[in-house]
């Protein structure tokens, strides 16, 4: 077995306030198994085609660096337009990985767009019967949210397999998925290390199940029946390449839908390249938009948390009870994500 320090070397070389009550739903009867060195994990492409040079090789490289054995989905290299093959084949790859008894977890190779297209085609009986960590982010948020809604077990919002697995990403993956721990995520130390300070918009603490992901994907799924119950949740959001007015539009949609009234707290992560490039622009900045939408909620809110389309993003346990401490800008896991 490879020691944690050895695995870190492999990847590192590659790289007071009142408590706001939130409802903690009963823990699911079964959790995904924890990962161990030597485990086989599936690599699937549920959304955009894997077309970048050496993208699949890079994913295999990172997975092997974790001490895991990659198994490629049958259609992971397919392409149909901008998608990784047709919808039915992408859904079949995911079903096959959940059904395989020796596959312990499933990594999305990349995001892009397309995960929502396959939700009605997935074999939900097989997924519910075989809890496994689904690991990925961005468009993979569609699968995280749907699994929380339809299967009820935890997943992991984390870099995709072909993304960079820098030290903070790997360390949080190891603590959550391998060690089965309940770490405190975020805070001043990681902000200083990454050079990305977060902000407390509304102080306080709150507890609830951590749910969310990519803002665009979540807002797209509203009204479809594929979102989990957000009542009492700690909602986290992130995005990329969205100008402030688009973020404004999506947050307004959520306000009108009553989302922010129902959640116990909000964690807005990184919004990479969410700026206006016109030097004569005189409108709202992203911070202005966040302050106007989230600063008056009367419940704990932070912005700039270390998740999203950035290096060294933290792995976040989806559908796991956490405590948000807005003053310290941290999320503390209240139970393990794995069995």
Give a short summary of the structure.
The protein has eleven helices and 15 strands.
- What summary fits the major beta sheet? 9 strands, mixed
Q: Which band does the percent of strand residues land in? A: 15-25%
Shape: globular
Give the beta-strand count.
Answer: 15
Number of helical elements: 11
Rg estimate, integer Å:
19 Å
Poorly predicted sequence stretches spanning 5 or more consecutive residues: 1-28
Q: Termini separation (Å)?
A: 19 Å
| Mean pLDDT over the full residue set | 92
- Helix and strand composition category: alpha/beta
Helix content: 25-40%
Order of helices and strands: HEEHEHEHEHEHEHEEHEHHEHEEEE
Please explain how this structure is put together.
- With 339 residues, this protein is α/β, with parallel strands linked by helices.
- The chain has eleven helices and 15 strands.
- It has helices at residues 4-13, 55-65, 87-99, 124-129, 141-150, 167-178, 188-194, 215-221, 244-256, 259-262, 286-294; strands at residues 19-20, 40-44, 69-72, 103-108, 133-136, 155-157, 184-186, 199-202, 205-214, 234-240, 265-272, 301-303, 316-318, 321-325, 330-333.
- The strands form two sheets. Strands 1, 7, 8, 9, 10, 11, 12, 14 and 15 form a nine-stranded mixed β-sheet that branches.
- Helix 1 (4-13) packs antiparallel against helix 6.
């Amino acid at each position: 077995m490879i020691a944690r320090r050895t695995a870190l070397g492999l990847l590192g070389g590659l790289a007071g306030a009142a408590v706001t009550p939130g409802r903690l739903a009963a823990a699911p009867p079964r959790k995904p198994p924890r990962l161990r060195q030597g485990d086989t994990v599936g690599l699937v492409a549920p959304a955009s085609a894997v077309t970048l040079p050496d993208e699949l090789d890079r994913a295999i490289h990172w997975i092997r660096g974790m001490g895991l054995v990659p198994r490629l989905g049958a259609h992971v290299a397919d392409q149909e337009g901008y998608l990784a093959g047709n919808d039915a084949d992408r859904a079949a790859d995911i079903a096959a990985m959940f059904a395989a008894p020796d596959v312990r977890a499933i990594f999305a190779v990349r995001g892009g767009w397309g995960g929502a297209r396959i939700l009605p085609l997935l074999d939900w009986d097989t997924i519910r019967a075989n809890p496994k960590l689904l690991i990925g982010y961005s468009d993979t948020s569609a699968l995280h949210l749907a699994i929380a809604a339809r299967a009820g077990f935890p997943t992991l919002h984390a870099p995709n397999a072909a993304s960079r697995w820098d030290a903070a990403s790997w360390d949080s993956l190891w603590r959550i998925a391998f060690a089965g721990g309940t770490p405190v995520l975020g805070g001043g130390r990681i902000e200083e290390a990454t050079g990305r300070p977060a902000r407390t918009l509304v102080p306080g603490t709150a507890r609830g199940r951590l749910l969310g992901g990519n803002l665009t994907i979540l807002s797209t799924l509203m009204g479809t029946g594929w979102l989990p119950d957000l009542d009492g949740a700690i909602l986290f959001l992130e995005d990329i390449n969205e100008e402030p007015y688009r973020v404004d539009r999506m947050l307004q949609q959520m306000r009108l839908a009553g989302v922010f009234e129902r959640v116990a707290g909000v964690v807005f992560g990184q919004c990479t390249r969410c700026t206006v490039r016109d030097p004569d622009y005189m409108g709202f900045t992203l911070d202005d938009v966040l302050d106007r939408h989230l600063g008056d909620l009367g419940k704990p809110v932070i912005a700039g948390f270390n998740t999203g389309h950035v290096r060294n993003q933290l792995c976040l346990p989806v559908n796991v009870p956490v405590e948000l401490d807005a003053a310290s800008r941290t999320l503390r896991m209240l139970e393990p994500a794995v069995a």
